[in-house]
From TrEMBL:
<feature type="domain" description="HMA">
    <location>
        <begin position="3"/>
        <end position="71"/>
    </location>
</feature>
<dbReference type="InterPro" id="IPR006121">
    <property type="entry name" value="HMA_dom"/>
</dbReference>
<dbReference type="GO" id="GO:0046872">
    <property type="term" value="F:metal ion binding"/>
</dbReference>
<dbReference type="InterPro" id="IPR044296">
    <property type="entry name" value="HIPP46"/>
</dbReference>
<protein>
    <recommendedName>
        <fullName>HMA domain-containing protein</fullName>
    </recommendedName>
</protein>
Length: 72
């Protein structure tokens, strides 16, 4: 499988939500790396075979509003 890079905008209004979002993403199948841009509320996710829709659904359910910005 090819390497994927995804950008997700997540509601991370507090440290609690940032920590929760990071734990969810790191625990997802196929994720190799995660970068956080606090100021913009974005998560840059790198991996192979990651189900982006399922990841976004889980984040929305557990953390709050989540948008898929880019998948490449």
């Amino acid at each position: 499988m090819a390497k994927q890079t995804m950008v997700l905008k997540v509601n991370m209004s507090s440290e609690k939500y940032r920590t929760k979002a990071m734990k969810i993403v790191v625990g997802a199948s196929g994720v190799k790396g995660v970068r956080l841009e606090k100021e913009q509320g974005k998560l840059m996710v790198e991996g192979e075979g990651v189900d982006v829709l399922e990841l976004a659904r889980t984040l929305k359910k557990k953390v709050g509003k989540t948008e898929i910005i880019k998948v490449s």
